[in-house]
């Protein structure tokens, strides 16, 4: 059965939220001291890396939502980066990441293939213009890239990093069933009726 590209992007948004959920079940077992402890990576700690994922999600999802509403780009994009670590405890990180994950899901749910070429303006010193498709592809790659660093950092703690590659295969549905139950999702929600959407 043909699956629209827009539906694949929606499954990537679900995968992102699922991976964040599963990874958080590991890192939230650490103490605040362990979250802040120096570790090897692009950013110096688990907390710093998790905050980077969050602030970049805020930045890009805001740009996507503004284009969808027909609003002008954010007048001060640096507001998303004025604090390197806006969330200084695990509870805040969990809440804010979950919220922006749901915003991204809502954005991808409304998309159709015919809309993927629409241009989104990313506010920078020199504004950047990319299609919805290219911007979403970049955002998902950014998330995967830095989530991998969190995964690696967990290897130096007492908490084993979880598997994050059990989302797409039909035969691995049982391995994600508990997470889906916690998130209120079903396999049909993601791969069933969604693929019937008109392009």
Automatic annotation (TrEMBL):
One of its GO terms (molecular function) is metal ion binding. Keywords: Metal-binding. This is Damage-inducible protein DinB. The keyword Nucleotide-binding does not apply. The lineage of its organism: Bacteria, Pseudomonadati, Pseudomonadota, Gammaproteobacteria, Pseudomonadales. A divalent metal cation binds at residues 52, 142, 146. Belongs to the DinB family. It comes from the Bacteria. It comes from Pseudomonas fluorescens. InterPro entries: DinB, DinB/YfiT-like. It holds the Pfam family DinB.
